[in-house]
Amino acid sequence: VQLQASGGGLVQTGGSLRLSCLASGFNLGHYAMAWFRQAPGKEREGVSCISTSGGNRFYVGRFIVSRDNSKNTVYLQMNNLRPEDTAVYYCAKSEYSDCPPSLESLFDSWGQGTQVTVSS
Known about the structure:
The radius of gyration is 13 Å and the shape is globular. About 0% of the residues lie in helices and about 50% in strands. By secondary structure, the protein is an all-beta fold.
């Protein structure tokens, strides 16, 4: 299993970014997928999750997850970004088809992270 996150960068307050997570080594369509983030000096937290049926579960905030199983890719659309959204963002594979609670132990594979920096 491999998860490769990309799409991070530097953006001004109010801007948008779309993160991508390219999955390989497993059938993406069988598993719920989530995005987590870790800000400097803080614990990693769940952002949003998408089930195999396409439903979103929001852990914190307002960012929408989508998936294209034909491209083995999961996306995180982030609009109206704020400085407090600055963090390293990680994609993660759940052990389930529906989104579980945002406990890291319920996700069995992680990407390497992509940095998102929002300037004020």
